[in-house]
Amino acid sequence: MSESSSSAPQAETARPPAALAGVRVLDLSRVLAGPWASQIFADLGAEVVKIERPGRGDDTRGWGPPFLHDADGEATDAAYFLSANRNKRSVAIDIAAPEGAALVRRLAAQADVLIENFKVGGLRKYGLDYESLRNVNRRLVYCSVTGFGQTGPYAARAGYDYMIQAMGGLMSITGQPDGAPGAEPMKVGVAVADLFAGMYAAAGALAALRHAERTGEGQHLDVALYDCQIAMLANQAANYLVSGVAPGRLGNAHPNIAPYQVFETADGHIVIAVGNDGQFAAFARLIGRPELAADARFETNRRRVENRAALIAEIAPAIRERTSKAWFELLEAAGVPAGPINAIDAVFADPQTRARAMAAPAPQEAARAEAPDLRYVPHPVKYSATPARFDGAPPALGAHTRDVLESALGLSAAEIAALAKKGVIAI
Fold first, then answer.
1. For residue 26, what are the β-bridge partners?
2. Which end of the chain has fewer CB atoms < 10 Å from its terminal CB, N or C?
3. Pfam families per the record (predicted)?
4. Residue 158 falls in which region: left (phi positive, over 0), alpha (psi -120 to 50) or beta
5. Which fold has domain 260-341?
């Protein structure tokens, strides 16, 4: 290499294209299920415009503490809001005002996907329902996320994650079994019914978007938290449909595998997850009980599940003889899956979390002004050709109202000022 070439400035590496670059999403949803779906689109490069009520915005902006605080110590947005709204543009429009609804219709005419989670029929009076918008945009993928769907005897009911976990069967299989200390149905520690509905909504909208690209025809997606909760019962739903017996609560045990649960150690607790007969034989040798693998009650997973109580009675005393750390090292060396029960602070301190960059700051140009060093949990999928992006922290309410109305709809400064004066928009 010549001296001149080695000292020449290096060309900046081109940024890889985002998978959904050019896709426009209009987000009329609030709280978690809908925003979770639209955040997936935003992470993958779609332009997501979030429509929010002037003066109040998404309900989750106030769902704290904890909150971010500005330079004067005043609370701004709750951490809850930050979890589901990165990479979006916030436009504050009052859709109850005729002029506001008209603005949203114009934005919908340009959109590829619309996501909303109003009550069934709630947007019809504003002319923002699927049938109305289909007349102005035939290729629009219109995704409605509700508690119970557009049909059925419960369609008009509001649906919240907690009640959906209860009604959809999840709580009936979560918690300590009857007769054990603290026995009662339990919810999961995060709003999984909302999150799974959001993920199904995103996957469904991507499938419908592909159909629209091929045919020029959009469609209406009816996503119910209740349906998604039933779908995510997975093997437990299949257990019932095959056997006719409703599964019950097993605490930290697995309904179809044993031993696969929490065990007490000399200084805490660990999870041991024996997934097959070979692993069980290795486990039995490790705890000094090799004869268990040949015991007719325990020699296959089926027999271990059928004789779970007797199996745990044989195993538990041995596990209590060593510390959690000692067991991790021994089990890992023997090829038997096991893991600690981490508190969330320990999760983010874990070297695997750090290696996978699962708590990352926003790029400097995309950070929140009041919290430039704030870390976020990023999109978890690693793409070799079209990586997920982080172009913007969760926006302040109405931060992009003026820009979107000018660039997307061509409104003049005078028109925007007039709408703001009437309270139709907030800038």
1. 49, 114
2. N
3. CoA_transf_3 (PF02515)
4. beta
5. formyl-coa transferase, domain 3 (3.30.1540)
Residue type, 189: G
Q: What is the pLDDT of residue 16?
A: 83
Surface-to-core class of residue 160, CB atoms within 10 Å of its CB (0-12 exposed, 13-18 middle, 19+ buried): middle
Helix (H, G, I), strand (E, B) or coil at 98: helix
CA distance 55 to 420: 12
Rg (Cα) of the chain, in Å, rounded? 26
* Domain regions of the chain by residue span: 24-232+364-426, 260-341
Q: What percent of the chain has pLDDT over 70?
A: 97
pLDDT at 13: 61
Which of 152, 175, 156, 161 is closest to 229 using CA atoms?
A: 161
Catalytic residue list contains 194: yes
The answer to whether the beta carbons of residues 283 and 260 sit under 8 Å apart is no
Euclidean distance between CA atoms 417 and 427, whole angstroms: 9
Q: Looking at residue 9, what is its pLDDT?
A: 45
Instruction: Write the CB contacts of 238 (distance below 8 Å, at least 6 apart in sequence).
Output: none
Residue 118 phi/psi, 5-degree rounding, is -75, 165
pTM for the model: 0.92
What is the pLDDT at residue 14? 73
Cα distances from 169 to residues 164, 181, 186, 246, in angstroms, run: 8, 22, 11, 10
Using the structure block, give the residue that is written with the tokens 């490790």.
286
Q: Which of the residues 58, 77, 194, 222 is marked catalytic?
A: 194
At 339, give phi and psi (nearest 5°). -160, 160
pLDDT, residue 88, reads 97
347: CB partners within 8 A, 6+ apart: 353
CATH superfamily, domain 24-232+364-426, is Crotonobetainyl-coa:carnitine coa-transferase; domain 1 (3.40.50.10540)
pLDDT of residue 7: 43
Sorted by sequence, the CB contacts under 8 Å of residue 304 that are 6+ apart come out as: 258, 259, 280, 297, 298, 311
